[in-house]
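REQUEST ID: PR-0412
SUBMITTED BY: lab tech R.K.
PRIORITY: routine
TASK: structure prediction, single protein chain
INPUT:
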Amino acid sequence: MKVRNPFAGLLALFFVVAWCLSGSVAFAKPLVPLRTAWLGEHETFLVWYAREKGWDKAEGLDLELLPFESGKNVIDEMQSSNWAIAGVGAMPALTASLSSRLYIVGIGNDECLIYPETLLENIVAQIAEHRPDLVVIDSIQTIYTDLLDSSAGSVSQIRECAATLLKYAKSTGTSIFIIGHITKDGSIAGPKILEHIVDVVLQFEGDSNNIYRILRGIKNRFGATFEIGVFEMLDAGLRGVDNPSEILLTHYEEPLSGIAVGASADGVRPYLIEVQALVSGAAYGTPQRSTTGYDARRMNMLLAVLEKRVGMKMFQKDVFLNFAGGFKVADPGLDLAVVAAVISSYYDRPVAEGVCCAGEIGLSGEVRPAPRTEQRISEAARLGFRRIIVSGYLAKGGKRPKGIEVVPINSVDQLPKALFTE
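STATUS: complete
OUTPUT:
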């Protein structure tokens, strides 16, 4: 019997393995090259970390890092490097979510230009060259000018940079949005002169525990400031909420005590909001008073009115108040709804179905008409409420919508009967 050469078998096996590897490489999906430009180590860290972990390869991307010393170099090398993403200012403008996957957000057209620069003179020069319709500065605390020796974010730098941008906007008609930092209590950080220089001050309200945000006007030289915008934070960004009442009302399978619905109006926009109250015995002597989204001092005043005018022993009770959706409400027209929720929890009786409230309560217990009561009534009728409790001093003769009963009361001691009557 003829003995086969063992090296021939090994050689054949090598060719088989090589053919398999070549086939797998040939059929593998090629990586898409993506070139990014960044300024400074602190801005490059997110993308560098994703690249080190191999998250870009897992998503089919070949991520390249192009470090630049200044934003001008990025603009000069734009055509040759063909970068798609850049870190702007002192913080990345386009962020990657590094929780489980790598998400890269890019600009899909040539109409949006990104200029990573913190020197004011270079920024103004680029704006004058490209003449955009809208300019966004993020943020004013990171911009500085060579005319002053102080560091970026100081009072003099913020004042000078904001004044220069204002002068350019007024002389050329360019709209400029200036993003500023805020403090822990929600007010704009830095000198008050920044708010005096600009024409309009807009502020987002909300926290990380709630998905809803309110865009509120603090200052407006060209219009009113009582208008608001309600937005919902989603994975793809902020989405406008056309009907805030639907997200502020909860539908329960069975009626619960301590819950009342108030008809509110912020600006000319009416909406209905759910008020939740919990009244329990004070176990430690001194009763507790806690509110979320409402003025604690006003709640204490309303509790004193209930004790004086209705005879409820509130000095022995802990009271907790909350507004649905985490909203902060300062509308005095919600006094009646707050008191209704407290009364419902105090007697542990749910408010009659399809009832809402709109009215302001005075120290003597009288119920005053809320501003824009007619709009509140129309909003309640549109959402299917059958009764609304309002002030008996409301002017008669207004056009009322069909399908809703308007129950007038003159004093707060008449409220329990109106609440629990089916």
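NOTES: Residues 6-27 form the longest helix (22 residues).
REVIEWED BY: pending
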